[in-house]
Amino acid sequence: MVSRVIPVDEFDLVIFGGTGDLARRKILPALFRRFQTGQMTKDSRIIGAARSGYSNEDYRAEMKAALEEFLEKESRPAREVKAFLERVHYVSIDATGKSGWKELKALMRPGVVQAFYFSVAPSLFGPLAERLQEWKCALKDARLVVEKPFGRDLETARQLNKTLRDYFDESQIYRIDHYLGKETVQNLMAVRFGNMLFEPLWNSQHVDHVQITVAETVGVNGRGAYYDKSGAMRDMVQNHLMQLLCLIAMEPPSRFDPDAVRDEKLKVIRALDPVPAENIARGQYVSDDAGESYLDQVGNPDSATESFIALKIQVSNWRWAGVPFYLRTGKKLKARQSEIAIVFKDAPHSIFGQDVGRHRNILTIRLQPNEGINLRVTIKEPGPGGMRLVDVPLDMTFKEALGAESDDIADAYERLIMDVIRGNQTLFMRGDEVEAAWAWTDPIIAGWKERGDRPSPYDSGSTGPEDAAILLHREGRKWREIRA
Ligand code: BG6
């Protein structure tokens, strides 16, 4: 199936931190792919901005190297790369000083969409926002894109929101959570609100519990300094897993528009109960393939930071009262596997007697790899010999169902950057949402500090610490398998 590409309006996108890792690894490759599809119009421009004294040519050479490093050879024909790089410019700028701003102002074109991507440390958000206004680089409806981490607690997030709003309106601020740009995450909304089938069952009367797993095989190598100050709770739960939880738990918004969707997500976050210590399991991996432990990799032998976390969460509202949401995420686990499983209750009465076993419908939404949806339904085991029941999957892998090569499924950054240009904030976090998520997260982290809790060790390549399994076992449930 060939998807229809609608070109976006002409734009100038300035990337502060234009020589940084995110620009090289994600932003430029994403823009190149949108350029290839024709969605980025030919007069649109990308302007890298950073401190290095590069010329346009130096920067293009550096971005060419980035495309070569991060895209498969077959997917980047030389002619297309050359045409794309002609749209790439550079300005050497001092984020906290005066140099470069006049040059940037001279480059900006009125009459096209303007977007400024802050791919820099949060401490530079304020100085950049201030200078964009001071030097009149930003037009009235210019857009700001900011990356996570958006603060490290409620206080710092509030401060960041205030800083940005001193210079820009909330309607101009696009806070990225790249999970919201993933194909299947949006499919969650399509499945829930585009079908009659699921929504009537989507509540505490029919759902036994929900599991959200984001398992990674990578460790923290190379990002140790950042990660050790964050841990899985700040790095993954406060943002990515929280967003997934919101999309599952929220009430149907009246329209698929930014504020209607974000209002409903906010209500979910505000309905989350505080999480007592006994409903949390934290872990730290003890060795990886090279024999290195988390502690070796972060270079901090006393670190009490978790590389794994599992939580049991309650959403206190009419729809979800009494339904546990179990979340887990960790590094150096057995496999890379992200999925959401809605486990339905047992049928109220078995007409087949007790010896046919326990059969449950489970709806699984696979985020990665192999994006797709799977519904386990109970049928009769084929053949003679009486009524025996088995569970079989109704399985749909998007790649197969839609005839799309998995490579054709746009990367989250491609989708999100194009949404910025379109001026659509639906898949971006609003300031109050981020603050509410921190307000829920802060007391949990403060509790660990007060009690001096330490994470339990787990083997690299395992499914996490034993405590995580116990969290469900004690309630007669078990985690879904993480399959290598
Ligand atoms: C990032 C985290 O936001 O998401 C990383 O900082 C994590 O630690 C990554 O590895 C996971 O993203 P994805 O898209 O690979 O699941």
Give the C-alpha Rg. 24 Å
**Main sheet attributes: strand count, strand direction, barrel closure:** 9 strands, mixed
CATH topology of the largest domain: Dihydrodipicolinate Reductase, domain 2
Q: List the helices and strands in order.
A: EHEHHEHEHEHEHEHHEHEEEEEEHHHEH
The proportion of strand residues reads 15-25%
The counted number of beta strands is 15
In short:
With 484 residues, this protein is α/β, with parallel strands linked by helices.
Please describe the topology of this protein.
Blueprint lengths: L10 E6 L4 H17 L7 E6 L5 H15 L7 H8 L2 E5 L8 H7 L5 E6 L6 H10 L8 E4 L7 H14 L5 E3 L7 H12 L12 E9 L8 H26 L8 H13 L9 E6 L8 H5 L9 E7 L9 E7 L6 E8 L17 E7 L3 E9 L8 E9 H4 L10 H11 L8 H21 L4 E3 L7 H8 L11
Parallel strand pairs: 1-2, 1-4, 2-3, 4-5, 5-6, 7-10, 8-15
Antiparallel strand pairs: 7-11, 8-9, 9-10, 11-12, 12-13, 13-14
Helix pairs in contact: 1-2, 1-12, 5-6, 6-13, 8-9, 8-13, 9-13
